[in-house]
Design goal:
single chain; alpha/beta; 7-stranded parallel beta sheet; 7 strands
């Protein structure tokens, strides 16, 4: 199926590893020009760039930014546009998943989780929408939430669960604001994935997690990325304000 996104420009936050890497590669495979955002993992981001260059005939760059800092977000958007062209697709994947139960959680941990997982998408979405409205362009935004947004957390990740629940409601609100301008805003809510961020937790509690998944296995990042690529494409032309569950059946609704 032709997704009709060849030569479009996409910016993926947290694109240097895990799900972000899979999204970058999935979009590049469709001929999308890709900006791989990273915060501190420059070497990993460059590995993604080199992998895309070796496999696909499309443009790709790495762009450094802390998405919780407005000035850095502004610079990231400028670098992307100057090198690849006007933005068409924004994927908010950057996030952190620290562990602490609420009674032991430092205030600084709460603040940093909310800053990166919620303020970051706010800043990037705001900038993307501002540019699209200024220029009369349309665009696609895909925010990465989590099943924790609906289940909560019993393993010391209340801050993460709260941030992802907020992101779901932010997605719906922004979608309502900009739908008439041809700007689509959706979210993807993954289940458990085999990524660096979750590897230790899954290894330590694998049987507990598998019992909650009707399909009986942990997802590969590429399986989640497939939904992101679809929502970023013209084939998802009648979907906005939605949160798509890709979770092996954990949540059925």
């Amino acid at each position: 199926m032709d997704l009709h996104i060849k030569d479009k420009v996409a910016l993926i936050t947290g694109g240097s590893r895990g799900l972000g890497r899979a999204i970058c590669i999935g979009l590049a495979a469709e001929g999308v020009k890709v900006a791989v955002n990273y915060h501190s993992s420059a070497a990993k981001a460059q590995q993604v760039v080199e992998e895309i260059k070796s496999k696909y005939k499309t443009d790709v760059i790495a762009v450094q930014a802390d998405v919780s800092k407005s000035a850095q977000v502004q610079k990231m958007f400028e670098q992307t546009a100057e090198t690849l062209g006007p933005l068409d697709i924004l994927v908010n994947n950057a996030g952190i998943w620290p562990t602490a139960y609420v009674t032991d959680m430092p205030e600084e941990q709460w603040d940093s989780t909310i800053d990166i997982n919620m303020k970051g998408p706010f800043l990037t979405c705001r900038r993307a929408v501002q540019k699209w409205l200024e220029t009369g362009r349309t665009g696609k935004i895909v925010n990465i939430s989590s099943q924790a947004a609906f289940y909560g957390s019993t393993t010391g990740h209340a801050d993460y669960a709260a941030s992802k629940a907020g992101l779901v409601t932010f997605t719906k609100s922004l979608a309502r604001e900009v739908a008439e301008n041809g700007i689509y805003v959706n979210a993807v809510s993954p289940g458990f994935m085999a990524t660096d961020m979750a590897r230790d937790e899954i290894r330590n509690n694998k049987e507990q997690y598998l019992k909650r998944i009707p399909l009986g296995r942990i997802a590969e990042p590429e399986e989640i990325a497939n939904m992101v690529v679809f929502l970023a494409s013209d084939r998802a032309g009648y979907i906005t304000g939605a949160t798509m569950d890709v979770n092996g059946g954990m949540l059925m609704r």
